[in-house]
Design goal:
The protein is mostly helical. The chain folds into 3 domains: 108 residues, Four Helix Bundle (Hemerythrin (Met), subunit A) (Up-down Bundle), CATH 1.20.120.1810; 68 residues; 79 residues, Winged helix-like DNA-binding domain superfamily/Winged helix DNA-binding domain (Arc Repressor Mutant, subunit A), CATH 1.10.10. Helix content is 65%, strand content 0%.
């Protein structure tokens, strides 16, 4: 899919000005364009779908600014995720594009964050991974409970050293804040200038129904695994705090490589079950 999109320039304000020029699509317009691209591979239709949703990418990218990545880089990765979502979107499933695209956008942003931090040798142990993803949440909880920031309490809650909290906190501070005031009179921020693209009640319901359907399909797929495969998927893929290959290898008294092979085979089985189900039109 080759097309001309707004360049993520050196200034966020300039980029915001560019993406505001693209009108938001009505549900009817979006469906018509999505059908054109799905059926005819109409590149112009895909371009309009993507540019109309660039605002939403910025909204999602803003949720990850505490991880210390450059906001412009997060937006760029999110835009790639949006393009992938448009390419794979099925307009006949009865949901809005953004309800589907949000998963692709988040996946690309999260993958970029993890990859970038891996290059810095951060997040290589279980404790560091927990700290990376839970630090902001823990600090906010301590702040509400005690009324002030407490590094020692945060470290105890996350079971890490105070020095690790301080180091990670420094690394996670971004260089640009969307909450920065840009108006002298009304106190408005850059984030205030972006349109609210949150889903309405009808769209939320459609998204919820789609998620419930997907959960049932995943449950059906996992049920077809043997006990060892199911254990590995539950402990490695779906768990909030996944076990390492070595921990599972010790549990079954097998090698790490064997665990990896079983996990790979189980994922292939799940994919084989899910793909035909996900290809069915909504309501079929």
């Amino acid at each position: 899919m080759t097309m001309a999109l707004p360049v993520v320039a050196d200034s966020l304000s300039l980029y915001f000005a560019e993406i505001k020029k693209f009108p938001v699509l009505s549900p009817e317009e979006e469906h018509e364009l999505a059908v054109r691209f799905y059926r005819d591979k109409d590149i112009e239709a895909a371009h309009r779908l993507i540019t109309a949703n660039l605002r939403f990418v910025v909204k999602i990218a803003a949720e990850y600014r505490a991880y210390g990545m450059k906001m412009l880089d997060l937006i760029q990765e999110g835009n790639v995720g949006l393009m992938m979502a448009v390419r794979k979107f099925n307009p006949h499933r009865g949901i809005r594009l953004i309800s589907y695209a949000v998963w692709w956008i988040r996946a690309y942003i999260q993958n970029y964050i993890i990859s970038s931090w891996s290059l810095l040798k951060i997040g290589t142990t279980q404790a560091q991974k927990k700290l990376f993803f839970k630090l902001s949440q823990a600090k906010n909880a301590i702040m509400e409970l005690m009324g002030h920031d407490d590094t020692r309490a945060t470290a105890e809650a996350l079971d890490v050293k105070e020095t690790e909290i301080i180091e990670m906190d420094q690394r996670m501070r971004g260089e640009f804040s969307l909450d920065a005031v840009i108006g002298d009179d009304d106190g408005s921020t850059l984030l205030d200038g972006l349109a609210d693209e949150r889903l309405n009640q009808e769209e939320v319901l459609a998204d919820l129904q789609e998620n419930r359907l997907l959960q049932r399909q995943i449950g059906h797929a996992v049920a077809g695994l043997n006990d060892k495969e199911r254990f590995i998927i539950e402990k490695r893929v779906t768990a909030d705090d996944p076990l390492t290959l070595q921990e599972i290898a010790d549990h079954f008294a097998i090698s790490r490589e064997r665990v990896r092979q079983i996990e790979e085979g189980a994922l292939k089985k799940i994919k084989k079950v899910l793909l035909p189900l996900m290809a069915e039109p909504a309501g079929a």
